Amino acid sequence: MTVATESTTHTDPDVAAEAARRRTFAVISHPDAGKSTLTEALALHAAAITSAGAVHGKGDRRGVTSDWMGMEQARGISITSAALRIDYGDCVLNLLDTPGHADFSEDTYRVLSAVDCAIMLLDSAKGLEPQTLKLFDVCRARRVPVITFVNKWDRPGREPLELLDEIEQRIGLRPTPLNWPVGIAGDFRGLIDRTDGCYTKLYRAPGGATRAREERLDAAQAAQMEGDEWTQAQEELELLGEIGADYDEPSFRAGESSPVLFGAALPNFGVSQLLQALVELAPAPADPVDAQGQVRPVGAPFAGQVFKMQANMDKNHRDRMAFVRIASGHFERGMVLTHARTGRPFATKYSQAVFGSERSTIDTAYPGDVIALVNANALSVGDTLYTGPTVQFAAIPSFAPEHFAVARARDASRYKQFQRGIAQLDAEGVVQVLTSDVRGEQAPVLAAVGPLQFDVVKHRMAEEFHAPVELSHLDYTLARRTDAASAPTAHGLSGAEVLTRRADNELLVLIHNKYRLRVIERDNPDLALEPLLAGGVA
Ligand code: G4P
In a mutational test of the pocket of ligand 1, which residue from 30, 36, 37, 121 has the highest number of ligand atoms less than 8 Å from its CB? Predict the structure, then answer.
C-alpha cells in the first residue's frame, strides 16, 4: 500500500468527526434465527421508531419492510437489501439488510463488502447453521470483524459453554463473551456484565412490544435473588477467566476473535447491551484504499462505491436505484458527481435513504452512510462516484456461478426489450451474463450461484420488460477463469465451453463437473484455469 497522494490529503476535520460517529454493519444469520426481530428490537431501543412491529413486516405487522417485490412476499423470503439508519446517543448506526436465503448469497456478498462489522446471530437451540457458516466465510474472506449475539435465550436451548465451543471448533473464531446469562436457556433471569461483574435482572414486558424492564443489582443482591443459578453462572465465569476468553481488540479487528453477547430479541433482552457493544467496539469507517492501493482519507472529498443495484422497488416509483456506500467526504443532495468508469457527470438531485418500501429524501450524508440514487441507469455494481481528485475503487468480486442456462426471448418480435432487460439484470448483478460467438447475442448464457436467481430473471423479464424468456439449463456445474493465450486450447476441450463474461470481459471456461475438470487439468497442465471466488472464500 502506498501513501496518500498530495491531492487527496486535503481533509475536512468535520467530516472525519462525522465518520467517527458511524457504525455500519449487517446481521448475518440463518433464516428464522430472528434477524427481523432483532432489527426491530435494535431500532426500538434506539428509539428510531416508536413501537415494535414497524420494521418487522411479517404477518399483519406492516411497516419498514424489505418485502417490496410481489414474488418476495409470496415466497416469504427476503431477496433484496436496504439500509436502516438508527440514531443512537451520539452515534449513527447504519444497518444494512442482508437477504437471508442461500440462493441470494451473491447479493449478500456485495452487502458485506459495504459494512465495517457484522453481527452473527445464532439461535441458542441451533448454534451454527448452514447459511450462517456461509455468510461467516464471506466475513472471514473480507476480514470483517464479527460480534456474536446468541438469541432466543428465553427458550430452551443449548449450554452456553457448548455454544462457545462450537464457534471455536467449527469456524476457528475465538469467542470472548462480554456478558453471561444467569439461568439456562428457557429460564433466562438476567445478564452478568463481565467487565464489572454487575448483574442486570430482566423482566419480560407484556407482548414484548415495549422495552423490557431492567434492574441493575450488585453481586450480593444478585446471589440472594438468583440462588443456585447465580452460583452456576459464577462457576462458568471462573472457567472463562481461566481460559483467557477476554475481549481483545486487535484479534477482534482482525476477525480472529468475536465478542459474544447473550439475549433474546423478542422480549428485548440483552438488546441494549448489544447496541452498547456496537458503539464501543465496532470500528468506525476507515480511510478507504483505491484500486491502485492509494489511501484516501475519510475526510477527503466525496467518493463512494455502488454495492447494489435494484430496479422497480415499488410499483409507485418505477425506477432503477443504485445503493452507494460513502467512502470519503461529505455528501449533499444536488451535488454533481463524476462516474469514474465513464468520466460522465452524475446529478444527485433525487438521492434517498431507503429501507424496504419506506423512502425519505436524504440531504446530507457522511462516510459509512448509504445513499440510494434514483434514475441510475448508467451505474453498475462496483462503480465509483466521486468529486475532487480522481479515484476508482477495486471491483467487488463476484461469486463462482454453479448454475447455467441459455436465455431466449419467447417472442422474437420483443428482442429489443429482451436485450435491454438482460443488460439491466446483468448490471444489477441479478445474474452474470456470458456470451460467445458460437452461441450468438440472441442466446446469452446466464450464470447463477443459486437456481432461485433464475426465477427472479423470469419474473422480472416478463413483468418489468414485457419480454418473457425461455431458459434451457446447461449441464455445467463449474466455472474457471482462463486467458487469451489459453483460449484456443480451451475451445477444443470436450465437456467444456469458453464464454466471455460481459460485465468484465473475463474469459470463463464452463466445465461439466469436477471429474471432468481433473481430466482437463491432467491432460493440459499448461492451461490457465483459475478458480473464482467460491462461497465467499477467496
Ligand atoms: P428471521 O428474520 O431471521 O427469519 O427471523 P424472525 O425475526 O422472523 O424470527 C423467526 C421466529 O423466531 C419468529 O417467530 C420470531 O418471533 C421468533 N423469535 C425471534 N427472536 C426470538 C427470541 O428472542 N425469542 C423467541 N422465543 N422467539 C424469537 P414466528 O412464530 O416464526 O413468527 P412471528 O409470528 O412471531 O412473526
Answer: 37
Q: CB count, 10 Å around CB of 421?
A: 24
Q: In this structure, are residues 422 and 433 in contact, taking their beta carbons and an 8 Å threshold?
A: yes
Reduced to 3 states, what is the DSSP secondary structure of residue 229?
helix
pLDDT exceeds cutoff 80 at 285: yes
Which of 32, 72, 150 to mutate to test ligand 1, by most ligand atoms within 8 A of the CB atom? 32
Average pLDDT, the chain: 84
Rounded to whole angstroms, how far apart are CA atoms 61 and 101? Answer: 21
- Cell readout for 495 is 465437456
Place of cell 467517527: 20
Inform me whether the pLDDT recorded for 77 exceeds 50.
Answer: no
- Within 8 A by CB and 6+ apart from 473, the residues are 403, 404, 405
Give the Cβ contact number of residue 124 at 10 Å: 27
| DSSP 3-state of 122 | strand
Spatial separation of the C-alpha atoms in residues 31 and 123, rounded to whole Å: 10
Residue 108 main-chain phi, psi, to 5 deg? -60, -40
- CA angle (196 as vertex; 193, 202 as ends), nearest 5: 35
Nearest CA to ligand 1 atom 24: 152
Cell readout for 460 is 422480472
Residue 46: closest CA among 348, 275, 383, 380: 275
Residue pLDDT, tens place only, 377-393: 788 889 999 999 999 99
- The number of the ligand 1 atom at minimal distance from the alpha carbon of 267 is 23
Pick left, alpha or beta for residue 535 (phi over 0 → left; psi -120 to 50 → alpha; otherwise beta): left
Three cell numbers, residue 104? 441470494
Is the CB of residue 325 below 6 angstroms from any atom belonging to ligand 1? no
* Set of cell numbers at residue 96: 444494512
150 lines ligand 1 (CB under 6 A): no
Helix (H, G, I), strand (E, B) or coil at 175: strand
Separation between Cα atoms, residue 21 and residue 110, nearest integer Å: 23
pTM score > 0.80 for this model? Answer: yes
State the amino acid at position 418 in one-letter form.
F
Q: What is the enclosing helix (H) or strand (E) of 341?
A: none
Range 357-381 average pLDDT: 80
The interface predicted TM-score of the complex, written ipTM, equals 0.97
* Residue among 451, 443, 447 nearest 506 (CA): 447
Provide the b/e sequence for 379-393 (b: ≥16 CB within 10 Å).
bbbbbbbbbbbebbb
In sequence order, the β-bridge partners of residue 303 are 328, 386
Q: Is 152 near ligand 1, meaning CB less than 6 Å away?
A: yes
Residue with cell 444527485: 348
Residue bearing the bigger pLDDT, 472 or 361: 472
